[in-house]
Amino acid sequence: MNSTINAFSDYLIIEKRLSANTVSAYDRDMRRLASLFKDRPLESLGTQDLRQALLAFRKSGLSSGTVARALSSMKMFYKFLKTEGEIQADPAHILESPRRGRKLPDTLSLEEVDRLLEAPDLELAPGRRDRAMLEVLYGTGLRVSELIALKRTDLDLQAGYLRTMGKGSKERVTPLGDEAVIAVDDYCKTARPALDKGKNSSFLFLTQRGKGMTRQGFWKILKSYVQKVGIRKSVSPHTLRHAFATHLLERGADLRSVQMMLGHSDISTTQIYTHILQDRIRSIHNKYHPRS
Question: In the prediction, which pLDDT does 165 show?
Answer without folding.
Answer: 79
